[in-house]
Amino acid sequence: MKNLVILIGRIAAAPETRHAGETAITSFTLVTDRPKLVDGKTVKNEAGYTETLAEFHRVTAFNGLGTSVAKHKKKGDLVEVQGRLHYSKWTDREGVDRYAVEIVAEEVLFL
């Protein structure tokens, strides 16, 4: 069994780095596109191109990898992210269970 994610997309906003002790944690949002489907068929625009829908993915990179991304990449830059899915669950102040999913990056390729 393997938990592996590979995404190619553009960075939606400047990466942000915070520190937890000596660990640097860099977060950014990656935007990918997927074809727009209606009744199981791709939708084409008037020019004949396939219409797409944007999907937003939360990515977290640690230490040197994250620091490098934050230093060298900015909004709009194209990258490939390889990593794994990480699921979180917590209870908010009102006692409601909340869930989140993120990609923990193991490699970020600058394209």
**Rg from alpha-carbon coordinates:** 17 Å
Strand order of the largest sheet: 1-3-6-8-7
What is the SS-derived class? mainly beta
Average pLDDT over all residues? 96
What is the count of β-strands? 8
Q: What is the H level of CATH, i.e. the homologous superfamily?
A: Nucleic acid-binding proteins
Question: Helical element count?
Answer: 1
Identify the overall geometry: globular
Pfam families: SSB (PF00436)
GO molecular function: single-stranded DNA binding
InterPro entries: NA-bd_OB-fold, Primosome_PriB/ssb, ssDNA-bd
GO cellular component, one term: nucleoid
Structure description:
The protein has one helix and eight strands. The chain is mainly beta. It has a single domain, classed as Nucleic acid-binding proteins (OB fold (Dihydrolipoamide Acetyltransferase, E2P)), CATH 2.40.50.140.
Secondary structure elements and their pairing?
Layout lengths: L4 E7 L4 E5 L2 E13 L1 E2 L2 E2 L9 E11 H10 L5 E14 L5 E14 L1
Parallel strand pairs: 6-8
Antiparallel strand pairs: 1-3, 1-7, 2-3, 3-6, 4-5, 7-8
